[in-house]
Amino acid sequence: MSSMPDASATPEKASHPKDRPWVMRTYAGHSTAEASNALYRTNLAKGQTGLSVAFDLPTQTGYDPDSPLSRGEVGKVGVPVPHLGEMRKLFDQIPLTEMNTSMTINATAMWLLAMYQVAAEEQNPDLSPSEVAHKLAGTTQNDIIKEYLSRGTYVFPPEHSLRLIGDMIAYTVHEIPKWNPINICSYHLQEAGATPVQEIAYAMCTAIAVLDQVKNSGQVSDDDFEKVVGRISFFVNAGVRFVEEMCKMRAFVELWDEITRERYGVQDEKMRRFRYGVQVNSLGLTEAQPENNVQRIVLEMLAVTLSKKARARAVQLPAWNEALGLPRPWDQQWSLRLQQVLAFESDLLEYEDIFDGSPVVEAKVRELVEGAKAEIDRVQAMGGAIAAVDSGYMKQELVSSHARRRAAIEAGEEIIVGVNKFDTTEQSPLTADLDGAIMVADPEAEKAALASVEAWKAQRDQAEVDAALARLAEDAKTGTNLMAATLAAARAGATTGEWAGVLREVFGEFRAPTGVAGAVGVAEAGAELTAVREAVQRTGDEIGGRLRLLVGKPGLDGHSNGAEQVAVRARDAGFEVIYQGIRLTPEQIVAAAVAEDVHCVGLSILSGSHMELVPAVLDGLKAAGMGDVPVIVGGIIPESDGKALLELGVAAVYTPKDFGLTEIMGGIVEVIRKANGLA
């Protein structure tokens, strides 16, 4: 039997030259700079055409590894970069002036860009700093508004964060002209519950706030403002409803062209072009029957590649097993190969836009554009994106939208294959060894990072660091662009925590609205929720008061969607809910449990730090005389870790396969009854 390809698959001559494929990335970074560097170089050798760096939560939120808030979080969801020495290791043997590097960093974006530039300067000692900067190409995500709404790695109040963004944009347009200084990021809005209309509208409102900030700062001339608009890029989500998602991208293109032309007077069509990268939907991947995630990823990739006029500039795909834990290099390779097959084996890139003239597509795009315009007008009437963050409006709308979708899944109105329908399954060889199906973060990463910071501080010129940080503080108190002082601090050897600490002192910190209080949950209670409500009422009567549930997010994990939905459904079920938002220490959670005299503590952790943070809460409750209060845990928790948590005394563990929130509420009631000796 011949192993040669079928002759029918031989391509005919294309009607025009084949388009260049998009930049292919995998989102990567873990444990240590050395380990991440090895992974980057391996992926580049496999044909990856750009780097996409994931930083750990301490780096993202401006803490060094030796901060108490960093406990259990170092190297978990990305690579720790607490100082310039680690940035050097991260890009060792990778020529930065030849790379296109995307860095998923927001609150500390200015600092990470400065260290990246200084590392590139050190690689090119024969060039001046300005000459090096002009050669750099890439993107910093740097969209802080969506952090207040969905992802939670904000640090400073909105107006100060917007100033940092404006300063970075003004600096890059002059000094790093090939750099995209901000990625307006609607990706996490979809994961937080945004409909396509909300995703478009809130992203555009963010872009308007950023461009207005730059224009009003006076740091960029009218002639250069078109360049600013031309360097704004977007980072979007693509869900599995790929026709709607493709139409969403065409709507984005149309609306951005209109806003930049009419609101900002941009005449150059190239500068008005909607330029975006995409990560397809990670939180839509399922723990149950995870092999189904492969076809989900393919459909989501098609949504952002099929339409030439709305095709992504860069694509990064998650791995099939991300709902189980940290993907291995082989899993990331599989995702890269999905892109390469589409780009190089199919004929997609040989044709003009295949959807032009489609009445179905045109009608859907028109519907999305008109809906988004109405929502943009609503937000602008409130005073814009910053005002809508402060008031809690956008957050509340997202929490409500997410609650409606969760209710539809539970009711079977929205089908998730393998989860709420077609859930019988054969044994999968991919998950026969669950612990082997994911990569475990290096348990020594935190020790290595602590040692690195200690050694770094011992060899630097402390007086030079102190002077650089003093300059940063002074500039922060004025209208001076902070990029120069930040570069000076990086060159002097300051740390991530020191840079952010200075600005915390000047700007203060911020806690965003949770959106839970005003969110609309289940409109009508069905039989299941009614039964749980009765159980909550009956148990409260037997104990002697309304049942109180504390929902806590320990550590630096800011992905609060699950915690918010648990809080909303618990409230609908009749619990009194105490939810104080993200980034709490175990000690703060214990203090709240004592102060509120709660009947159950629920912890939500998606960053992989559950084995460090949960025991700290359990120990704290015992020390406070509340060791009999049951603790439940939810998150992306491998099966072996779940068993270990139960052995430590956790009453129940919930993972993404446990999608029934009302069922979880019933489980919480049973846990409380058991803890109180009730039948």
From TrEMBL:
Keywords: Cobalamin, Cobalt, Isomerase, Metal-binding. Its cofactor is adenosylcob(III)alamin. InterPro entries: Acid_CoA_mut_C, Cbl-dep_enz_cat, Cobalamin-bd, Cobalamin-bd_sf, MeMalonylCoA_mutase_a/b_cat, MMCoA_mutase_a_cat. Residues 1-21 are annotated as: Disordered. CDD domains: MM_CoA_mut_B12_BD. It comes from the Bacteria. Coiled coil: none annotated. Residues 546-675 form the B12-binding domain. Gene3D superfamilies: Cobalamin-binding domain, Methylmalonyl-CoA mutase. NCBIfam families: acid_CoA_mut_C, acid_CoA_mut_N. Heterodimer of an alpha and a beta chain. Belongs to the methylmalonyl-CoA mutase family. This is Protein meaA. It comes from Nocardioides aromaticivorans.
